[in-house]
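Obj.: predict assembly geometry.
Materials: sequence records (below).
Method: joint structure prediction, all chains together.
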Amino acid sequence: MDTETTDEIITATGRALQKYGYANLTMQRIAEESSITTAAIHYHFDTKEDLLNAFLDDLIKRFEAQLACEARDPRERLASFLDAVYTPSETGDDDFPVGLMELKAQAPYHNRVRERFLELDDMMQSVVASIVRDGVDAEHFEEANPGEVARLVTTLSNGGHTRTVALGENPARTRQLVERVLELRLGWTPNSEVDA
Amino acid sequence: MDTETTDEIITATGRALQKYGYANLTMQRIAEESSITTAAIHYHFDTKEDLLNAFLDDLIKRFEAQLACEARDPRERLASFLDAVYTPSETGDDDFPVGLMELKAQAPYHNRVRERFLELDDMMQSVVASIVRDGVDAEHFEEANPGEVARLVTTLSNGGHTRTVALGENPARTRQLVERVLELRLGWTPNSEVDA
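Observations (raw structure tokens):
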């Protein structure tokens, strides 16, 4: 399969989903958001469902890559996690908060969609828990329950996403809240200097 | 307007929204969920939008009534707030987590829907902030920033709602998390005895 073409189709899917909503998403509209014909899209993806699953797989893969932080210091890894979750991409090309929210609402009806959100959640919680564990071990952080901090950070990120979509709130508000939580739980915030 | 009829239409709207989703919600399907004819529904509500606005108004009104706690003790008021947010109603009749999530995803496109979610959010934050303020004043709670605790509790409730819908998670998991947050911030959880 031609990677460049499928990449373009997947990006166009995100744009069309954000623009028209899940219910009004058609292969035709996806084609209009790209330089690819409807026939070519059908050649690569049998159904809209296949395409949405590929879109979610791609989203998870890209998020995973963003989280694959080179740094070994847990404080740097935590700062980079927050950047990945709360900083909009520079191109804005892969920010589909409304589309993503609509897909979440589809999860109860589509098993494969639910599985992907469970996978994403599991990944987020694992990353945070491992950072907290390492930071506590290295005495960069105060004693804390890694699983509980991970669940707290992840649930706040879920809530922040809702607030962006439903209330039109700036995600920075939730980031601020999370940083304060981390300050109280770990005795450290990403704002503070690593070498301080 | 006949209150009993409009109440029945509004309840049927919630059921149909939960069952068919926003995109597939029709006056016909709402009629099928009630004992009322499509013609009668059209007589009471001009458009699907009017009906959804009435549905949200009703939801806010009922939630407000649930929060209108008789108790004066801030500890009882906090426990009753958590019950209102996290305990499913006994009949299950007014639990529409998926439908509500879909409406949140519609907020960017419908100003009146967004206004209602902003109103609901404002109410939740005000209630929690006022409980925290009173509890700190009465020395039932440790010193805390009422606005910050209110935002934290509300954002976690937003996140818990998403987790129920997207992941199929039991809301009790988020409640547990919120109670732990309150324990650390206020030195008190709703599990503890008020007279202890």
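Conclusions so far: The longest helix of chain B spans residues 111-137.
To do: check interface contacts against the pulldown list.
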